[in-house]
Amino acid sequence: NNNEFKDEKRKTLDEKNKTTAMYVAITIIMVLGASYAAVPLYRVFCRVTGFGGTVREADEFDIVRKRDLNRTVYPFKVTFTASTANKIPWSFKPTQSTIECVPGEPVLCFYRATNNTDTPIIGVATYNITPMKAGSYFTKIQCFCFDEQRINAHETIDMPVLFVIEPEILDDKSMKGVSDITLSYTFFKSND
Amino acid sequence: MNFAQNSSIQKPTPPDKGSFPLDHDSECSKPMMDYMKCLKDNQNQSRLCMEFSKLYLQCRMDNNLMAKEDMDNFGFENVKNAKIVQAPKYNPNEPIVAGLSRRNNNK
């Protein structure tokens, strides 16, 4: 009698183990399947809602930032430097060494590049702002950076930069004492 | 440059209105030279040379070297509203004394 009882107990235990194992296996398969399905599902979600910055409307380009300047401002001195990398055989200089401007004012400045060789050269420019924390307040409205620029043989080109220092720089406590900003442009030779 | 270490360093961002096309034929050299001369005469203060800036941008627009836009959109007129004062004197070596509020600096 005792043996029969033990056998029965073992049988129900086995059955319970089998059902648990089946549940666990099913859960694993479901989770694996969900992680594979997440990729296309996310794509659809982003496309529909525009989250994640994948969708951009064309008129964001034309939205004009209204800067409120009904306030006291103090002038900033912007210094310009230029350099060439990779021994590019052209001369690249700013046409003005410094400009004194106020935040919120659109400022025009120029860089002059001369190709001293007999062949056209294609280059790309990038820029840097010092001090680093001022970089977030320096808005370039239009410039000649990040796009390939082609200069023909023995040609001199004047390249403009139109920028604005955001007025919020005057309210930022960490920017106290900063009244000098340096804009450095570097020209790289494009490998094409 | 490790941006993760210092979050206040901004990655270079592309310009708002894109890139200026190159002026290969020097069509707008004259407004540019006028602007440079104005800067030289005015100790490089650009707010006194806004008219020349506008002339240069207008020349670019007329010669298809820039997307046509209303001059008001750039914000040249806003500068007239601003009151320009001297930069506040800031001594970076001013010590911080515990318990003493900084008198001159704002709250």
From TrEMBL, chain A:
Gene3D superfamilies: Ctag/Cox11 (2.60.370.10). Keywords: Membrane, Transmembrane, Transmembrane helix. Its main location: mitochondrion. It comes from the Eukaryota. It is a single-pass membrane protein. Pfam families: CtaG_Cox11 (PF04442). It is found in: Mitochondrion inner membrane. The chain crosses the membrane at residues 21-39. The keyword DNA repair does not apply. SUPFAM superfamilies: Ctag/Cox11 (SSF110111). One of its GO terms (molecular function) is copper ion binding. One of its GO terms (cellular component) is mitochondrial inner membrane. The keyword Membrane applies. NCBIfam families: PRK05089.1. Exerts its effect at some terminal stage of cytochrome c oxidase synthesis, probably by being involved in the insertion of the copper B into subunit I. This is Cytochrome c oxidase assembly protein CtaG. The lineage of its organism: Eukaryota, Amoebozoa, Evosea, Eumycetozoa, Dictyostelia.
From TrEMBL, chain B:
This is CHCH domain-containing protein. It is found in: Cytoplasm. InterPro entries: COX19. One of its GO terms (biological process) is mitochondrial respiratory chain complex IV assembly. It comes from the Eukaryota. Belongs to the COX19 family. Transmembrane segments: none annotated. Residues 1-11 have a biased composition (Polar residues). Keywords: Cytoplasm, Disulfide bond. It comes from Dictyostelium purpureum. Residues 1-25 are annotated as: Disordered. One of its GO terms (cellular component) is mitochondrial intermembrane space.
